[in-house]
Amino acid sequence: MEYYKIQLVAIVSFIFLFQNIQGWGEEGHYITCKIAQSRLSDTAAEAVKKLLPDYAQNDLASVCTWADRVKFYLRWSSPLHYADTPPRLCNFQYNRDCKDLDGVKGRCVVGAINNYTTQLLDYGKDTQYNLTQALLFLSHFMGDVHQPLHTGFTTDKGGNLIDVHWYRRKQNLHHVWDANIIETEEERFYDSNRDDFISAIQDNITKTWSDKVEGWEICSSDETACPNTYASEGIQAACQWAYKGAPEDSVLEDDYFLSRLPIVNLRLAQGGVRLAATLNRIFK
Ligand SMILES: *[C@@H]1O[C@H](CO)[C@@H](O)[C@H](O)[C@H]1NC(C)=O
Ligand SMILES: *[C@@H]1O[C@H](CO)[C@@H](O)[C@H](O)[C@H]1NC(C)=O
Ligand SMILES: *[C@@H]1O[C@H](CO)[C@@H](O)[C@H](O)[C@H]1NC(C)=O
């Protein structure tokens, strides 16, 4: 009996482990949150520190995948990780696209970013919301909205239904963008050292992209968060880079990897910079 129980637990954990990899993988989320926390104003850094659960030890990156881990029991939260768009239109329209599979409006990653931003504006007041959860959701979804295939086509579930090979391994296209490009980049160029990869991105934020960063940070008029823009950029990048040259059964190797890597780096950088900018506007 005990033996079967253990086996069952093993199988279930195995399934969960693999389902878990969704949205930027562990790496992508860790990286965006790490970049973001290093750019917080003193006031925002203080608020984040207060809101983080104790076990995070004031490291936002360490809990940046919390939202992926809870979606199996907080089932209502699973449509909030993405905003799929109609096939081949290559644009995002909130009213048309931001809904869950039952058609309930606002239930997509863009609606969720707005939702948790609004909740966090209650910080320091009496509130009905759990602002720790709001912070963890916002930090995670800001990463997700920057993964181009999180605004991919409804018909292929953002590339999840497109089977490809990543070098010699069977994979789906969504997962290639969640994890494989980042992992291969870390292995090949950073000796699998995540911190070195993060430093390289941060270096480019202050050098290569220095004249663009302010444009990434800014929201139009008096908005605190502007995820619509990020989703629009996302689906454009998906059409231009992710779907392109990656039909069903294709083998993706160096050509694809090396030409897409700059897009992934850019989206990781933008996600981090914008999460920080948003938190700095929330806690001012
Ligand atoms: C907004 O947040 C609340 C509390 O977590 C949640 O119940 C609701 O589903 C969220 N809605 C959206 C669109 O994110
Ligand atoms: C808020 O959510 C966090 C994370 O799920 C949980 O640990 C904490 O107990 C919650 N706080 C309250 C007051 O419910
Ligand atoms: C940083 O920028 C340089 C020059 O544009 C580029 O070659 C390199 O791949 C970039 N690295 C990262 C991690 O963005």
State the gist of this model.
The N and C termini lie far apart (57 Å). This protein has 284 residues and is mainly alpha-helical.
Explain what this protein looks like in three dimensions:
- It is a single chain.
- The chain is mainly alpha-helical.
- It has one domain (2-282): P1 Nuclease (Orthogonal Bundle).
- Helix content is 55%, strand content 4%.
- It is built from 12 helices and 3 strands.
- Strands 2-1-3 form a 3-stranded mixed β-sheet.
- A hairpin with a 2-residue loop joins β1 (163-166) and β2 (169-172).
- The longest helix has 29 residues, at 254-282.
- The protein is globular, with a radius of gyration of 19 Å.
- The N and C termini lie far apart (57 Å).
- Residues 14-21 have low confidence and may be disordered.
- Bound molecules: 2-acetamido-2-deoxy-beta-D-glucopyranose (3 copies).
- Residues 53, 130, 132-133 line the site of one 2-acetamido-2-deoxy-beta-D-glucopyranose.
- It is an enzyme of class 3 (hydrolase).
Overall residue-averaged pLDDT value: 93
Number of strands: 3
CATH fold-level assignment: P1 Nuclease
Q: So, the CATH homologous superfamily?
A: P1 Nuclease
What percent of residues are in strands? under 5%
H/E element sequence: HHHHHHHEEHHHHEH
Radius of gyration: 19 Å
| Tally of alpha and pi helices | 12
Q: Give the neighbour order of strands across the main sheet.
A: 2-1-3
Q: Please estimate the helix content.
A: 40-55%
Distance between the first and last residues' Cα? 57 Å
Q: In the CATH classification, which architecture applies?
A: Orthogonal Bundle
The total domain count is 1
The kinds of small molecule bound in this structure are: 2-acetamido-2-deoxy-beta-D-glucopyranose
Poorly predicted tracts of residues: 14-21
